[in-house]
Write a structure and sequence with these properties.
β2, α2 and β3 form a beta-alpha-beta unit. The chain has 370 residues and is of the alpha/beta class. α1 packs parallel to α7 and α9 packs across α11. The strands form 3 sheets. A 7-stranded mixed sheet has the order 3-2-4-5-7-6-12, sandwiched between helices. Helices cover 36% and strands 19% of the residues. The chain has 2 domains: 233 residues, Thiamin diphosphate (ThDP)-binding fold, Pyr/PP domains (Rossmann fold), CATH 3.40.50.970; 116 residues, Rossmann fold (3-Layer(aba) Sandwich). The protein is built from 11 helices and 15 strands.
């Protein structure tokens, strides 16, 4: 059924289809609309979930952990400072191998206080063991949530998944999307290590030096296995619903001499810039990174690469640009743009390509380039 809604409402609609047993919720701009809409579904008895209005984001993730460890499907949503207030429990959820799904509406971190889009909030959580997917449209937000439950709950993975959408640029933008009844697309959840009240036991949480590293390795093993699970799930989704996704969305890259790499809505904006550059005779293409964790393998050899980061690691650089340099050996032109909701148009992106200097980092809007 085709409808029109914001990215936030699309996420909530997908949660309704996935029917988690427990939803733990705490409001924060610009995510609040997600948990408000889910609360309306529960109140109207359109969604049979235990809705827990907690006192903080830390408590929201703690409640999800408590529910998930019993084998219940769980969901929560947050943004920015709320995500970082969860940080302790975010690590715990991954370490406990709990397939929690969370929507994070990407927003800048203060100070200064800022409620607009930036990816640094989620990028700072990239090493916690959570899978991370970044979407570029309302339809993709809906579809990514549905697939996230399948991927997280697959016994080859059993790791939490974070679905990221740009604050206001997507969370509050209305676009048409297809509300797809999922039927049996999401299999029943079976958590092998779930607590069973019928068979009580003791659980020791202290892990010594002889075993801790093995637990860390097992997370890494599952992160690697997640690549095939993601691809299988995306192919199964395509066969069932006709919408195709990949780890990376390529646009006009077949004969490209220069490739723009970005995440989220900037990646979609880059496609328009590519069309403009093609009209000028520049053989440009774009790659929109969808899955930051596990990080995809990129074939960028023999091309100029321009990476746009809506994030920054102080003293290190654009996180996406540095990740690409480390994994591909390419020395890209690094552009820091869009921080705190700074407007970046397709004309700006075309300008980044025209002015590219491999190995140089440039801050859009700052006159003294690094």
């Amino acid at each position: 059924m085709l409808t029109v809604a914001t990215g936030n409402k699309a996420v909530a609609a997908a949660v309704k289809e996935a029917a988690p047993a427990v939803v733990a919720a705490y409001p924060i701009t610009p995510q609040t609309e997600i948990v408000e809409q889910i609360a309306e579904y529960v109140a109207a008895k359109e969604l049979k979930s235990q809705y827990i209005p907690v006192e903080s984001e830390h408590s929201a993730m703690a409640a999800c952990i408590g529910a998930s460890v019993t084998g219940a499907r769980t969901f929560t949503a947050t943004s920015s400072h709320g995500l970082h207030y969860m940080h302790e429990m975010v690590n715990w959820a991954a370490g406990a191998r709990l397939p929690i799904v969370m929507a994070n509406v990407n927003r800048a971190l203060g100070p200064g206080w800022n409620i607009w889009a930036e990816h640094t909030d989620a990028f700072q959580e990239r090493d916690t063991g959570w899978l991370q997917v970044y979407v570029g449209s309302v339809q993709e937000a809906y579809d990514a949530v549905l697939m996230a439950f399948c991927i997280a709950e697959d016994e080859r993975v059993l790791l939490p998944v974070m679905v990221n959408l740009d604050g206001f640029l997507l969370s509050h933008t209305m676009q048409p999307f297809d509300v797809t009844p999922v039927g049996d697309f999401i299999p029943p959840l079976h958590l092998p290590h779930a607590i069973d009240p019928a068979n009580p036991g003791g659980y020791g949480t202290l892990t010594g030096p002889d075993n801790y590293f093995a637990l860390r390795w097992d997370i890494e093993r599952s992160m690697r296995d997640a690549v095939s699970v993601i691809r299988e799930t995306q192919e199964r989704f395509f066969q069932r619903f006709g919408r195709r996704y990949d780890m990376v969305e390529e646009y006009r890259c077949e004969d490209a001499d220069v490739v723009v790499v970005a995440v989220g809505t900037l990646g979609r904006e880059a496609e328009v810039a590519v069309d403009l550059l093609r009209e000028e005779g520049v053989r440009a293409g774009s790659m929109r990174i969808r899955w930051l964790r596990p990080f995809p393998r990129l074939d960028l050899s023999g091309r100029d690469v321009v990476v746009i980061d809506r994030d920054y690691s102080f003293g290190f650089g654009g996180i996406l640009a540095r990740s690409i340099a480390a994994t591909t050996g390419v020395n890209p032109t690094s552009v820091i743009a869009g921080l705190g909701g700074q407007e970046v148009t397709y004309e700006d992106i075309a300008g980044f390509v025209r002015d590219r200097e491999p190995g140089k980092e440039t801050w859009f809007g700052v006159t003294n380039d690094v």
